[in-house]
Amino acid sequence: MSACRGCGAPLTTTFLDLGEMPLANAYPRSLTEAETESRFPLHVFVCDKCFLVQLAHEVTPDDIFSDYAYFSSYSDTWVEHARQFAAEAKERFGLGSDSLVVEVASNDGYLLRQFVALGVPVLGVEPAKNVAEVAIAAGVRTEVRFFGAQTATDLVDAGARADLVVGNNVTAHVPDLHDFVEGLGRMLRPDGVVSLEFPHLLRFLAGVQFDTIYHEHFSYLSLLALEPVLQAHGLRVFDVEELATHGGSIRVLAVLAGDDRPDEDGVARVRAAEREAGLDDLAAYTSFAPLVERCRTSLRSFLDTAGVDGRSIVAYGAAAKGVTFLNYCGVTTGEIAYVVDRSTEKQGRLIPGAHLPILDPSEIWKTRPDYVLILPWNLRDEIVTQLAEVRSWGCRFVTAVPEVEILP
Question: How far apart are CA 303 and CA 301, in angstroms?
């Protein structure tokens, strides 16, 4: 029996079981390579004691992150989000040329480049060597290693104590939550701040965002479940900001326990919202699976009707959430011909499991499909704007979470 990575209690209550799935960011280069593709259980539990939603089966981080196909800078929306955060953080926390911003899981330097442009020194910590090399080439100082307590100690010993430690969409990715949080505290100067952004479980449940479940997401986070872990390592939450990114996220701001800055209103507001939604009651979690099944039924009905009518469908966005969605719904190349993506790292490869080919977006203009299914629904507006001209031949945009919607 597995133990909760938050409080150590036995995990006995299933939240959602998606069966065996391929690694969401391990894109085969050919059908031959796909024949040896590994699959692992994707079974999510909720802790009866602290209500942390989590995977019980662990795939090793080395399997997932050593050679990674996700590059943050390909999303214009996300880069703009990073630019705004950097400008606000510089002003709010008084960052300057004598400060240091450390980002954990810094990817291709999408965020730290914004601080560099503002004259603030930075250091990235990124485990995927191929991604880190892009950041380094762009002038972002980057350590290629996983982050935890030992990494933090090594960096501090080398003089890299931080005024601001940022972890955007990484807290969910760490198998040892306590080691990770311990490292955050060790990195801080006495008056430093930790900023953690992650998709909010409250919005996950409301939007039936099951497609954000994949093996590199070990945890699905609420303030209710995360705050005790932070407290256990000497960190105190003083502000929580609600964000629109990734279908609804929160930014949790924390300081060392001895810091006397007052709590902002956002802390009480989010705590109250989670209680009102019943996140402290197992019923909120055990009622989720039927909603996911309804989503699959809706997509299958759309595909069947389109097939009978002779309508062609392609998909946009070879994101990890699309991998979970396509595999769970059993989509084949006979139903969706291909997926397009702006990332040249993914083009020419196949969707894990479903094995749909990933092509350049220009392919849409060559084949002129009837529908474009947007897989990264959180970027819907950006994608619709990019592809607006497809409407010239009557093509329609479609999203499918929490159920199929054909956009006007």
Answer: 6
